[in-house]
Amino acid sequence: MTDKQRLLIIGNGPVGHQFIESIIESGRGEQFAITVIGEEPRPAYDRVHLTAWFETREAASLNMVKDGFYSDNNITALTHEKVIAIDRAAQIVSTDKGEQYPYDKLILATGSFPFVPPVPGHDRKNCFVYRTIEDLEAITAAAANAKVGAVVGGGLLGLEAAKAIMDLGLKTHVIEFAPRLMAVQVDEGGGALLRRKIEDLGVSVHTQKNTQQIIDGDDCVHKLQFADGAELETDILVFSAGIRPQDALARQCELAVGERGGIVIDNACLTSDPAIYAIGECALWGGRIYGLIAPGWDMARVAADHVLGGVEEKAFTGADMSTKLKLMGVDVASIGDAHATTPDAKCYTFIDEKAEVYKKIVVSSDGQHLLGCVLIGEANDYGTLLQFALNKITLPEQPESMILPSLDGSAGVGLGVDALPDVAQICSCNNVSKGDLCAAVQGGAMTVGDLKACTKAATTCGGCTALVGQVLNAELTKMGVEVNTDLCEHFPYTRQEIFHLVKVGQIKSFAELLEKHGSGHGCEICKPTAASVMASCWNDYILEPKLAGLQDTNDRYLANMQKNGTYSVVPRMAGGEVTPDGLIAVGQVAKKYNLYTKITGGQRVDLFGATLDQLPKIWSELIDAGFESGHAYGKSLRTVKSCVGSTWCRYGVQDSVGKAIDLENRYKGLRSPHKLKMAVSGCTRECAEAQSKDVGVIATEKGWNLYLCGNGGMKPRHADLFASDIDTDTMVKYIDRFLMFYVRTADRLQRTSVWMENLEGGLNYLRKVIIDDSLGICAELEADMANIVDTYQCEWKTTIENPEKVKQFRSFINADKTDKEIVFIQERGQIRPATEAEKIADKDLIAVA
Amino acid sequence: MSWTTVCRLDEILPNAGVAALIDETQVAIFRVDDKVYALANKDPFSNANVLSRGIVGSIQGTLVVASPIYKQHFSLEAGNCLEDDGVSIPCYQARTEGELVQVQVNS
Asked: pLDDT tens string for chain B (107 positions)?
């Protein structure tokens, strides 16, 4: 009929469906004629969350197939049809509806069936299994006339079934053959705690019970008789005693199957017939059936890749069987060798009977590596522990610290990046976790550059560079490698040391600093650092000839460079306050130069798309209208955000806008190791979100509460309450001291939040330095700040008043032209940079105004 | 092939760069210790004409400019990217003739 390759999938469960999705996602779905045959009345649904069906009783809620998926991709999906035979020689399958379907490649995703122990009476009425939506519908119907329910099997699925029965309002029993619940994943201690927690919920647990037969009950429908003579009566019975691979078709057509069932597959998921694959719970790999969904999905992807010609060279090489789940509201997690079967493995156990928490880790005999773990009652450490186990990350010297609670209740403070779990995503652009970075360091990466090259972290937006550096240092320290804290190859000093060299030596130029303390020509790390430090100390105009070439990208032209080489311009609107005339003036400038206009998170207006030569013209108009530089380009104070405060608000207790304007005017222009953000809220409702700022002020009935070292952004941190109910003078004094202490001691590009977390002694130490003057430097810090405040100048005003400086903003030194490769596209009534494709298409392009 | 005079040397700040337009070619010219160097002004990673606005310095003895966009380093003397062996940008002859800065652009 067609020359397309015919793919036939038997079994439309989650794994079969994953296979089809993998083929479609490859973008080559059109090369295949895909047919999927399922014996259930509906296409693939999420069997893992079967119990969730009880919440809605709607099969659709578990549906895994998007509307239109089959028709959009020309897939033939047959439901309620059962394949009864495979003719391997003719490559044809036959179904119970008398149909025949030919194939080029056949994928067996037939799954498994629940094992029902062959005890007499197992086939009485109201005896069920727990696998399909139909099973759940039948259990629900039977429960309507029942009072008692019992589940045979205390494993993962059995406990799920028990929850379902309990939720149906029945007295619930769990009957387990082994001495404990979840015997595969959980050890004795964990099992005991799990049992107690589940019994607390009202479920009766019966372990070491071997059911002999099921007969008529006296009070209930059934009576179970156990080998030890005990009996239990129940109205409905659910068997959940494990699974068996559904390999009947494979046996019929004489594919190789395992001794105890399962279709034998190789690393490509191929069976003994090179035209037939088997994936999921019906497949036997390395003598093992994988009864979890994740390995099934892996197999589906591997088989799909192989059908596509092995483009990605995927292979199935076994799977990690670690699990974490919530069973009846109880957190249960198990990793690797949970039973400590590895020779000489050592265990650490932590039991909190009050909180009902059980944690055990299994560690290699040398204490270096995590082999396994069991967590019951609280599994927050699962992610970190799994990273250690999977990545063979070296354990801390005292492995028990991995599971012991922190006794001072202050986990996190002073821990820095160590407090992050390894699964924490560091680089969101390239999806690199802390674990990825740590593994790269273990593998030999020694610098941030190495990490960028081998993990791609920090190579897209670069926003995580500082965090990547911290992970690197923390990891190197752990490995016993001496961490090089030199600023760069030109200066064997930290930023803090450079600060002292500049200040004590009265150094005012980079040339002098380099001559006295460095080597080479400098670079884009030490030059802006020196420029920032000299600005913090001397506050000279940053575009002085000796300073201009040191400034970082944005400082260099007093504007924020965007991806196409144009700049954005932000006039200061202290406290977010702006007059109507001011707003009109900004609008007129934006309109004249056709700038894209956006309101910032810091309560002001950002104007995008200005070329280098437009900047001085734009600024002379803004300055004429009464504006000044907003320092949005600097590692300096950005804005002091405010709510409207007591002047207007019915709830405000202080004039937050007035206070914000005062603070912004006081600290504007201060160069610091990184940008600074502040906010003032007029009451405890905190509408200005001050607790997410470096400096946050919240009005109280008696004065101000001062919060320090908060951060939004990539790694949010709530600010710490530093002082309460202080008056305005005290507040300003503390902020002066705090800012100058941070400016003196922080690393390059280290926000106050990270600085605080790395500060030995943390918040209490900071209070001693700033409030108690424990270092005796407060007078000096205040004097330094006073000097900065007194020597403030609007950098843009200074610039446009000096024709020599304005010349620096020409697009070309030898031509009075603008870069004609800068072009825009109209979108939502404003410009945006044209993409490369749009430039080539050369349609509707807008030139610089 | 001829030399094009672009500007006076004192129009370029020491250890910094300027952009010049030579015919239709955008060139970045850098001044280091009174010597001048010329590269293409286009940053190949962002396709923006910005390299003249980068910070000039040295990495392991090689004179470089760091792209102001994503900070890759390009050798002032050869145009190769230090972070990515496969990337290189055009590098032009540059000289000072008395007070004048001159560049040779093949066209």
From this structure: 789 999 999 999 999 999 999 999 999 999 998 899 999 999 999 999 999 999 999 999 999 999 999 999 999 999 999 998 889 999 999 999 999 999 999 75
| Boundaries of every domain in chain B | 3-104
Q: Are residues A646 and A754 in the same domain?
A: yes
- Which residues on A lie below 8 Å from B102 (Cβ)? none
Task: Please state the rounded mean pLDDT for residues A797-806.
Answer: 94
The whole-number average pLDDT for the span A761-765 is 80
Contacts of A109 (CB under 8 A, 6+ apart): A9, A10, A11, A12, A13, A15, A16, A19, A278, A279, A280, A282, A300
Residue to mutate among A454, A749, A814, with most B CBs inside 10 A, is A814
Same domain, A667 and A785: yes
Q: Which residues of A touch B14 (CB under 8 A)?
A: 545, 549
Is the pLDDT score of A43 beyond 90?
no
Q: Are residues A658 and A771 in the same domain?
A: yes
Distance separating alpha carbons of residues A579 and A746, to the nearest angstrom:
37
Best of B21, B22, B34, B103 to disrupt the A interface by mutation (most A CBs within 10 Å)?
A: B21
Mean pLDDT across chain A: 89
Task: Note the pLDDT tens digit of each residue in A177-225.
Answer: 989 998 888 888 888 889 998 998 889 999 999 999 999 999 999 999 9
Residues in chain A: 849
Q: Which of A258, A278, A307 is the last residue of a domain?
A: A307
Domain that holds residue A675: 637-789
* Domain stops at, among A603, A619, A634: A634
In angstroms, the CA B105 to CA B107 distance is: 6
Question: Pairing state of beta strands A75-78 and A32-37?
Answer: parallel
B58 → closest Cβ in A520, A528, A561 = A520
CATH number at residue A187: 3.50.50.60
Residue A833 included in any domain: no
Indicate if the pLDDT at residue A442 is higher than 70.
Answer: yes
Contact across the interface for A812 and B68, Cβ inside 8 Å: no
A318 inside domain? no
Q: Under CATH, to which class is B3-104 assigned?
A: mainly beta
- SS3 percent helix, strand, coil of chain B, rounded to 5, is 5, 55, 40
**How many domains is chain A partitioned into structurally?**
7
Alpha-carbon distance of A811 to A60, in angstroms, equals 61
| pLDDT number for residue B14 | 92
Are A586 and A654 members of one domain?
A: no
CB A389 within 8 Å of CB A361? no
